[in-house]
Design goal:
The protein is built from five helices and four strands; from the N terminus they run ααααββββα. 11% of the residues are buried. The radius of gyration is 21 Å and the shape is elongated. The longest helix has 21 residues. With 139 residues, it is mainly alpha-helical.
């Protein structure tokens, strides 16, 4: 059985083709291609464009992508790993949701709150959990 891979890995892997494109355009000295790339990806701020070009120019040509991104992974993904979305059970509604459905809270394990975003909104508006069957008895 393969180990689960963090959601950040999935997002980084999804952006690799775009990043590879901009690196090649910068290395090929293709300013029109860089302008087109920025337009396609919605980068309209000139400072952001300059930063992207500078960062793309600084990527070492002799290093594999896995080595450059190794610092982002808690553990390296095994080759051929099956990507599994990290899930957490909401303490209010009991739904098992992806970590993206929970507010960020650095004081908690997994750096996410125990209640999902929907339950937190309801709790803040009404002062109680919407799911009475899941509430703990107060004594």
């Amino acid at each position: 059985m393969t180990e689960p891979v963090d959601e950040r890995d999935v997002r980084l892997q999804a952006r690799l083709p775009a990043v590879t494109d901009i690196i090649c355009l910068v290395r090929d000295l293709d300013p029109d291609g860089v302008k087109d790339w920025c337009a396609r990806h919605g980068v309209i701020d000139p400072a952001a464009q300059e930063l992207i070009v500078l960062l793309a120019a600084m990527v070492p040509a002799d290093r594999p992508i896995d080595d450059l991104l190794a610092w982002t992974w808690a553990t390296p993904a095994p080759s051929g790993a099956r990507v599994v979305q990290m899930l957490r059970r909401c303490s209010c509604c009991g739904s098992e949701l992806s970590l993206a459905q929970f507010w960020r809270d650095r004081t908690k394990p997994l750096e996410r709150s125990y209640r999902c975003i929907g339950c937190m909104r309801t709790y803040r508006e009404h002062g109680a959990c919407e799911h009475p069957a899941r509430r703990r008895d107060s004594g």
